[in-house]
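Aim 2 progress update. The chain analyzed this quarter is reproduced below.
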Amino acid sequence: MKAMLTLIAGSTLLLSQVGYTAGPGDAAAGEAKSASCAACHGPTGNGDNPTFPILAGQYRDYLVQALTDYKNGGRNNAIMKGFATGLSKEDILDLAAFYSSQESSLQTPKAN
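Predicted structure tokens:
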């Protein structure tokens, strides 16, 4: 019985990790949907205007949450709300898949 529970727990953990890593969303579809984003964030999410956040390389779940919050009013930015309001859940997942798959110009400071 203990071996069976260990097997079930291990399988559940493995499957949850595989699902998390792969994640939903289609990066190719996200790229096709990103034209309006590119005006401020650049074509790959590495825009050259420091006023706008870099999207490339951000965590997929972070991007999903941010766009969902803009859409639902959890984040207050009139410009982003205007863009996000028209996005479906699939659009949000696709955009997040695209931007999270891009190489980022962001860097983590090195410790001294």
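The two ends are 51 Å apart (CA to CA). Confidence is low (pLDDT under 50) at residues 9-22. These observations will guide the mutagenesis experiments scheduled for the next reporting period.
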